[in-house]
């Protein structure tokens, strides 16, 4: 299957990276990820914006998801234009030039046993 | 990106705030949150109703999500018209005057290690 | 808000009730729930079918969700036409005569610390 | 109810099978599952492709979900054309010849207490 699947804009209203954790890094580092599937035959040029409760959004962060590849992007690894602050509520908006599918996951290892969440992100159907 | 994204009405059928927890407050207080993203250029005036199994719904609770901001609203922090009872099944309905995106999250710290859930809320497409 | 919100048919493809747990009953009994919101002004007459991997579906289970009420139905509490077997993969289909919203939740307390999952169920748009 | 419900193509952007776990096998083996409901009166012939971050997708894996049955497919159990590597980011695409409903679940038992995630998969509305 080499078709474009999904949407070009996705939103994740939840976002929070705990500032500490338990267990060996990087697997048990408290983190959030945007898992992205690009099933199309074209590379996806992706832009991401971070929204906060008390200041203007930052972005775009830019990265590539190659054709027929998945990228599990850790928000912890975003550094340009700036690192995402820890212990801070945020939300994110993702825009791609080809359709993609996005799922949101967090591993919270602040306590001795890790906790996990995951949900399909919100697919935006209006054009941008 | 300064566009309105999402829907004006959202529903969350799950709701339960445990009455106790473990770990330092407020981060490890057992709580539920409606994470809301307002990506539009207009402030969002939001109303929220709480539904119960055995009595009439209460609300509206009213709050603002400023333009280009996210608000991770803790249900625990709702007090007007009345606090949400703990250890009680509930559901919620959220209505905004501009499109928003809503994700539901619970942290349950009743046991020594916290458990987390999160899911995209249900976007209502019919008008209200 | 007194309008009908949601869909009349919902599917939950995941289903598994662990046969044991830790902690005081009924809160920490391993269980699954279909959280249902009936925001309409009419009572919802709901039917539920359980699908298995190796035998014909059973049902309908029948119950009521009153107008403007939520019901967090524990699958563990279904007994008529028969109890749902434990430690068994299943799925469920829910049909209502008025639109409802359904969210699926499991508490798994087999180990000392409970684990939780929750997701919006799948809203079926075709008529039945 | 004997109707076909759902979609013929589904995507799951998240995927990661931890390489170890705690607790008795197979229930507490760290695993991922695609929970599939085939509510139709016809058997579903299902194909599944696995996408990676750094190499071409593999598949199709082929399996059957009989009419009016659910199958909770463990990705750990896929062996033909090849086993899915552990501790590796992946995503999946599922195609069926009759409509189905898909939900994604992971049990992560790397630490002493298991963690769980689950979400409805992404239903693809375009034809393939």
Briefly note the structural class of the backbone of chain A: mainly beta
> Quaternary arrangement of the chains shown?
homotetramer
Strand content of chain A: over 45%
CATH superfamily of chain A: TM1070-like
Number of extended strands of chain A:
8
Nearest-angstrom radius of gyration of chain A?
15 Å
Mean pLDDT of chain A: 93
Named CATH architecture of chain A: Sandwich
Q: What is the domain tally of chain A? A: 1
Order of SSEs of chain A, N→C? EEEEEEEE
CATH class of chain A: Mainly Beta
What pair of chains forms the biggest interface? A-B, 38 and 32 residues
**Count of alpha and pi helical runs of chain A:** 0
Q: Main beta sheet of chain A: strand number and arrangement? A: 8 strands, antiparallel
Task: Choose one word for the global shape of chain A.
Answer: globular
What is the fold-level CATH name, i.e. the topology of chain A? Hypothetical Protein Tm1070, Chain: A
Protein name (chains A, B, C, D): Sensory rhodopsin transducer
Pfam families (chains A, B, C, D): ASRT
InterPro entries (chains A, B, C, D): ASRT, TM1070-like_sf
Q: Could you name the key traits of this structure?
A:
Sensory rhodopsin transducer (chains A, B, C, D), globular, homotetramer, 128 residues, TM1070-like_sf (chains A, B, C, D), ASRT (chains A, B, C, D)
